[in-house]
């Protein structure tokens, strides 16, 4: 009888948590199981977790997976209540609130007293649950994924005490993540954080990242002897096939995801406003977007019909994307070189034209350049923005955005790569 391949995955984000951060390991786990692996997952009880959004439909993707949910103690719910009056609405995503002295004080406390992050209170419970599983199941392979990067400290402990093989997965940078610059961190806080990052980078048996290039160059300086494996965020081919492409009568522009003041969206909205003088434009948005952002968009583009759908399930978000004539993306300021979001791959898989605002020579920019009707444009290049929008507008219903390399970015293909990494290091 063939021996079962077991792996323990520690992920703070897990269904019913929603958003893009959870999807990476939901699909890796799903397809590892289909390939004959037996994944065990340690995560946090959603009733205690600091999850900004929930998506219960994602639970269907991980049916039959061994999942252990633990308690946690963390200050983010208190932080959220302090900032917004709600236990979840004020949990930071993409930017750190800094308006008013209370927000600035909260940012200082978060940056200097919760190192590496404000979810490190989960570590004690995650560690205990992981120890029990390792002992009862005889598992020798462990993966930790961050953010929150404090989770990697559990992986370091398990390797030291149990002799397991451990891979640390970096969905985003750690010390160099763009929003750390907004936290008023002291010299000592920065030193401690850098020490913890270096410890993880050097102690792990391998480092998994979503992008190569600039991020791995930074990591190699800190851990020159480490083994790095690029496992990008991808798209789920099964879902893409299951959701049909639709059309609506006006020129339909779609944006999904998080939208904050830390993204250069205003030049595009102004260009859409000018475009609406030539015909009807419908702009649909879905995701975690504040009422203030929606109001600002409506003020900047008064003749554009703006529809905010709220937070949608993953499947419904894909359906919205596939109803668009143009998909918009805005890279976080300061994150151009180190991140390629899973959303961008899903955009490309939809076959719809894509306009993204960011650095053209970034990893994401080079990715978009490989398709037939996608472009990364600087926010300051208003002529290029207007030209792209006008071409998409004039060719409504005629354009298909082809991406020849699409298949290798599917979740299944990437999981084959992951399984190869896990077996190679045996």
Summary tags:
16% strand, 426 residues, 2 domains, Rossmann fold, six-stranded parallel beta sheet, seven-stranded parallel beta sheet, alpha/beta
Question: Topology of this structure?
Answer:
Layout: E1 5-10, H1 20-34, E2 37-44, E3 66-70, H2 76-84, H3 101-113, H4 123-137, E4 141-146, H5 151-162, E5 165-170, H6 187-203, E6 206-209, H7 213-222, E7 228-230, H8 237-242, E8 251-256, H9 266-275, E9 281-286, H10 291-300, E10 305-308, H11 314-321, E11 326-330, H12 342-350, E12 354-357, H13 363-369, E13 374-377, H14 382-394, H15 411-424
Parallel strand pairs: 1-2, 1-4, 2-3, 4-5, 5-6, 6-7, 8-9, 8-11, 9-10, 11-12, 12-13
Helix pairs in contact: 1-15, 4-5, 5-6, 9-14
Summed up:
The chain is an alpha/beta fold and 426 residues long. Helices cover 39% and strands 16% of the residues.
Structural overview:
The chain is an alpha/beta fold and 426 residues long. The protein folds into two domains: 5-234 and 410-424, Glycogen Phosphorylase B (Rossmann fold), CATH 3.40.50; 237-406, Glycogen Phosphorylase B (Rossmann fold, 3-Layer(aba) Sandwich), CATH 3.40.50. Helices cover 39% and strands 16% of the residues. It is built from 15 helices and 13 strands. The protein has helices spanning 20-34, 76-84, 101-113, 123-137, 151-162, 187-203, 213-222, 237-242, 266-275, 291-300, 314-321, 342-350, 363-369, 382-394, 411-424, and strands at residues 5-10, 37-44, 66-70, 141-146, 165-170, 206-209, 228-230, 251-256, 281-286, 305-308, 326-330, 354-357, 374-377. The strands form two sheets. It has a seven-stranded parallel sheet, sandwiched between helices. A six-stranded parallel sheet has the order 10-9-8-11-12-13, with helices on both faces. α10 links the parallel β9 and β10 (305-308). α1 (20-34) crosses α15 (411-424), α4 packs parallel to α5 and α5 packs across α6 (187-203). The longest helix is centred in the middle third of the chain and has 17 residues, at 187-203. The model has no long low-confidence stretch (mean pLDDT 90).
């Amino acid at each position: 009888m063939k021996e079962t391949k077991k792996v323990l995955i520690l992920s703070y984000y897990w269904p019913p948590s929603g958003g893009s951060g959870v999807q990476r390991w939901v699909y890796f786990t799903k397809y590892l199981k289909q390939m004959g692996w037996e994944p065990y997952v340690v995560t946090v009880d959603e009733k205690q977790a600091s999850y900004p959004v929930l998506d219960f439909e994602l639970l269907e993707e991980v049916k039959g997976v061994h999942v252990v949910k633990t308690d946690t103690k963390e200050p983010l719910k208190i932080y959220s209540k302090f900032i917004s009056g709600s236990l979840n609405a004020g949990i930071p995503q993409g930017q750190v609130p800094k308006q008013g002295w209370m927000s600035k004080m909260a940012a200082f406390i978060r940056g200097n007293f919760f190192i590496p992050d404000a979810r490190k209170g989960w570590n004690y419970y995650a560690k205990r649950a992981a120890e029990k599983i390792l002992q009862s199941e005889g598992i020798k392979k462990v993966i930790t994924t961050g953010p929150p990067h404090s989770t990697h400290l559990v992986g370091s402990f398990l390797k030291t005490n149990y002799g397991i093989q451990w891979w640390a997965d970096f969905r985003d940078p750690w010390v160099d993540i763009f929003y750390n610059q907004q936290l008023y961190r002291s010299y000592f806080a920065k030193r401690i954080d850098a020490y913890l990052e270096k410890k993880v980078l050097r102690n792990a048996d391998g480092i998994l990242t979503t992008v190569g290039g600039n991020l791995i160059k930074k990591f190699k300086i800190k851990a020159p002897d480490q083994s790095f494996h690029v496992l990008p965020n991808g798209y789920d081919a099964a879902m893409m096939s299951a959701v049909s492409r639709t059309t609506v009568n006006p020129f339909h522009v779609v944006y999904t995801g998080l939208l904050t003041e830390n993204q250069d969206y205003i030049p595009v909205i102004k260009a859409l406003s000018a475009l609406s003088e030539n015909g009807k434009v419908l702009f649909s948005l879905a995701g975690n977007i504040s009422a203030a952002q929606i109001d600002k968009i409506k003020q900047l583009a008064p003749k554009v019909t703006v529809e905010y759908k709220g937070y949608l399930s993953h499947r419904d978000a894909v359906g919205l994307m596939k109803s668009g004539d143009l998909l918009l993306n805005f890279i976080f300021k300061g994150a151009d070189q180190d991140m390629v979001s899973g959303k961008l791959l899903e955009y490309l898989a939809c076959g719809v034209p894509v306009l993204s605002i960011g650095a053209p020579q970034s990893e994401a920019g080079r990715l978009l350049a490989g398709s037939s009707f996608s472009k990364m444009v600087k926010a300051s290049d208003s002529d290029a923005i207007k030209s792209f929008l006008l071409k998409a507008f004039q060719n409504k219903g005629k354009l298909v955005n082809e991406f020849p390399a699409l298949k290798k970015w599917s979740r299944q293909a990437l999981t084959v790569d992951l399984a190869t990494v896990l077996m190679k290091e045996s």
